[in-house]
Amino acid sequence: MNLQRILISTLLLLFIAGLAYKGYEEYMMSLKTEQTASQVENEDVLGGLEVGRKAPDFELASIDGEETALSQYRGETIVLNFWASWCPPCREEFPELITFSEEEGIPVLGVNVTKNERRGVEDVEVFLEEVPASFPILLDRTGSVEQTYRIVALPTTYVIDRDGVIVAKHTGPVDGKWLRQHTGESSQE
Length: 189
Description:
Elements: H1 2-31, H2 43-47, E1 59-61, E2 67-69, E3 78-83, H3 88-104, E4 108-112, H4 121-130, E5 137-139, H5 144-148, E6 156-160, E7 166-171, H6 176-187
Parallel strand pairs: 3-4, 4-5
Antiparallel strand pairs: 1-2, 3-6, 6-7
């Protein structure tokens, strides 16, 4: 009986020591610095983030199946809005974008981050049945445009001038006042 207690105690101590070692090993691994990301050689990709930089061109299929490229809008001031149907602030600002586009005549491109939709395009279609858009809805199915623009939160809106330069950027919902304020100066000749 005494030998049995010693054996059980020893096994228990070995088990606890093993867990402690494993925890220490994981702790040490977490302290190692992460590998640095490879440098981007094309500065246009980085330029998509900052006001004053050229907006990276892209081509995406619309919800209607038409291919649309940002460069098609060169010569016009446009609003580029990244959104998702599950995003409450996106849903809140959507009517503002529709009204702005219709009243001001400035093109709006709605880039749906489709890879983040639970049911993909089906979720987008259901949302657009509730709130029909009067501007093109582009589907970023792979997230490549989202990555290029380094979108970290939705919605994110860019105003791009006639020369393809970003003149304003906003993370979070925008309203008509913000849109008019940031497209007014850039849309004048």
